[in-house]
Amino acid sequence: MPIQRPTWLPSYIPELQGLRGLAVLSVVFYHCHPRLEGTPVHYASLWGWAGVNLFFVLSGFLITSILLEARDKPHYFRNFYGRRALRIWPVYVLVLVVVYLNAPWFIGPTITDAIKTAPWMAYIFFVQNLFHIALPPAVGPTWSLAIEEQYYFVWAPLVRFLRPPWILATLAFAALTVSAILRLTSEQWLTKTHTLIHLDGIALGSLLALGLYTLTLSRRIWLWTGLVSMVLGFAATATIAGGTAFLDTSLAVAFAGAVLATIASTGARNPLNAILRRGPLAFYGKISYGLYMIHIMIFIYFGWFDARMDHYGIPGNLAVVAFRFAASTVAATALWYGFESQILKLKRYF
Fold first, then answer.
1. 0.85 cut: is pTM over it?
2. The dihedral of CA 60, 63, 66, 68: what is its sign?
3. What is the C-alpha separation between 262 and 312, in angstroms, rounded?
């Protein structure tokens, strides 16, 4: 079975940038939920954590697409891991250095104590999510990076050497199934952020890429498949899967459907696609990695503002949330234009 990009699918899908922006805003919104108690949006904010699941689906699709297109090209591993390192490591290392060198502000103990107790080897090898350790809140978001890095460390060689796409699809489906089963067993050795119980989204994203690159279905069929999956996934989330070990699976199905529908409708002239292609959501998608990595650090840094607003009840809490979003946006924008985008220019060498 040949593996190739469908003729109707462009190499760059701008609408996915908007979905990435929606995902990161959901996560930031979630981390503000204690300040939203008593407001009409408090319940919605409690679901903001699901933005990470959307990130996983997007990452699974995009990275698997890249691997499928590059697997017959020279320097496959050098190019893939080189580009991943440029995308992930600079901001990741910067956040760790800032947090631990300013330990009294961000963590609590002295700098010396923080460095002695920090799981540095876990950070270096992206395995901090596999152990029962308490990550400082400022670097808490790194657990999801660890999952992605572990997955692609294994997935890239599999895509390179396992030629039949059905074998890759079987492995991705197995990862999806294992995640739900392990969550059901509640094994003591599994941490709440363990990779094996958070593979649903990445596996479904990978399956999306494999399907699009191997099945000769029309664009319309893919669109309707995505829409139906999205409706069924959200329906299951709101009913039978809610509060169960299959909640992440139902959310992954819903988000995979949304991603597939967006891919199949790319370029369409309608308000929804226009919102995803340009405007605030697309901008937040551009700065999403930096925003995801630094927003809690920004919250902590400006904790003095929170304290001043504590006396004003709900209006004060809303002011805190607005200030957090504004400060995090400014910081992430500066990080993107002054640091990330400059480093990413080195991708031309890979």
1. yes
2. negative
3. 42
DSSP 8-state class, residue 9: S
Residue 97: which residues within 8 A CB-CB, separation 6 or more? none
Could you give the CA distance from residue 313 to residue 294 in angstroms, rounded to a whole number?
A: 27
Compute φ and ψ for 189, nearest 5 degrees: -75, -10
Query: What's the pLDDT tens digit per position in 21-80?
Result: 999 999 999 999 999 999 999 999 999 999 999 999 999 999 999 999 999 999 999 999
Calculated CA dihedral for residues 173, 207, 30, 304, nearest 10 degrees: 110
Spell 294-331 as b/e; 16+ CB within 10 A means b: bbbbbbbbeeeebeebeeeeeebbbbbbebbbebbbeb
CA pair distance 203, 216, nearest whole angstrom: 21
Instruction: Return the amino acid letter for 194.
Output: H
Locate 286 and state its tokens.
């551009």
What is the separation of C-alpha 337 from the centre of its chain, rounded to a whole number of angstroms?
A: 21
Three-state DSSP state, 146 = helix
Amino acid at 39: T
The percent of residues above 90 in pLDDT, for the chain, comes to 86
Which residue, 291, 292, 289, 322, is CA-closest to 305?
A: 322
Q: Which two tokens stand for residue 78?
A: 């050098």
Give the tens place of pLDDT for each residue, 122-163: 888 999 999 988 888 899 999 999 999 999 999 999 999 998
